[in-house]
Amino acid sequence: MENGGDTASTVTIKGILGLLMANVSDKEERRLISLGMGDPTAFSCFHTAAVAEDSVVESIRSRCFNGYAPTVGLPQTRLAIAGYLSRNLPYKLLSDDVYVTSGCTQAIELALSILARPGANILVPRPGFPIYELCAAFRHIEIRRYDLLPENGWEVDLKAVEALADSKTVAMVIINPGNPCGNVYSYQHLKKIAETAQRLKLPVIADEVYGHLAFGDNPFIPMGVFGSSVTVLTLGSLSKRWMVPGWRLGWFVTCDPNGFFKTPKTVERIKKYCDICGGPATFIQAAVPRILEQTEEIFHKRTISMLKQAADLCCKKIKEIPCMTCPQKPQGSMALMVKLNLSKVNDITDDIDFCFKLAQEESVIILPGLTVGLKNWVRITFAADPASLEEALDRVKSFAQRHTKKLIEQC
């Protein structure tokens, strides 16, 4: 599988998307459609639950949450998150297991900060989320990438994990439901991951920011289910399931019944990190208990239904594009990976070139695969209204057809 080498450690999704936006032609009269960023709020069909909005308004109007919160999070917020996550676990989390963070990005930074030590390395998926590489670079942690296997539903190449790990490996990262691939791992595969991590004596960083956004054959299973056999650091947020990425409300949770991350020294280190960086706005934290406890299931079902329909439409339209192949229909999250067959097109050298020319000629933004670790692939975010998604992919089709190589007729 082609990969992007060390490029991911120097780029961010927002940075690349900013460059693509700047490349859109000023003369282009058609509206810009971006399928590059995992922010569903850009499309009016996706909005948060009424109870979430009411909870924030109530929190502000109470005038009780205008001051500082404890840096690890409000006690009632930590307790509510512990209860919410415990619904799907064979054991109960405590409020002390939960640290409230400014989105899942800060949870990633916290996880890597407490694991950092001289000479450390960490195993991350390829393709994956480039913030891990960026945070690791700041903490002088070596990144070692293991492949996800598109022909096997983007499952983890566990043989590669075993080959990459050594005495200085401090953790392996699992993203489930998958970003950027749209995969949802089965219980059996997660169990094999847990067994591998246990054998290697590695904690698992379980990035579950898309938790419960599953609409395929596999239900979402939190990695914390295996917490009794392997230490799991669960990262998540309100951002995706509640459609509020701008609220920056995330969590770092030690699903660790055996207490490896509950020693006084480790807890003190986590608290000191929180003292330095702080967390989300107090009034947002105060709204969390009601949001988690009172959001009606119909809201979540509606979201899942919309995402499934969008994923189906996306895959249908991609089949019409001559130089694109989708190896796996999305089973969850909001994005999928598509392979480019550049032998079928003229004047396009790689995925970066493809995306920049597409932006300039068609005012459509999609993310080059190199950004997430796979050269000559692209990531498409399908969390969009059907009309916008269809129009954008029709423009991609027109672009591909315009650049398609013409076969020379044989005499």
UniProtKB/TrEMBL annotation:
GO biological process: L-tyrosine catabolic process; vitamin E biosynthetic process
Keywords recorded for this protein, A-Z: Aminotransferase, Pyridoxal phosphate, Transferase
Molecular function GO terms recorded: L-tyrosine-2-oxoglutarate transaminase activity; pyridoxal phosphate binding
UniProt-listed InterPro entries: Aminotransferase_I/II_large (IPR004839), PyrdxlP-dep_Trfase (IPR015424), PyrdxlP-dep_Trfase_major (IPR015421), PyrdxlP-dep_Trfase_small (IPR015422), TyrNic_aminoTrfase (IPR005958)
Cross-referenced Gene3D superfamilies: Aspartate Aminotransferase, domain 1, Type I PLP-dependent aspartate aminotransferase-like (Major domain)
Aminotransferase class I/classII large domain location: 32-396
Signal peptide residues on this chain, from the entry's feature table: none
Keyword NADP attributed: no
One Pfam family from the record: Aminotran_1_2
Coiled coil residues, start to end: none
Cofactor(s) required for function per UniProt: pyridoxal 5'-phosphate
A single cellular component GO annotation: cytosol
Residues modified to N6-(pyridoxal phosphate)lysine: 240
Family indicated by similarity: Belongs to the class-I pyridoxal-phosphate-dependent aminotransferase family.
Protein name: Aminotransferase class I/classII large domain-containing protein
Species this protein is from: Daucus carota subsp. sativus (Carrot)
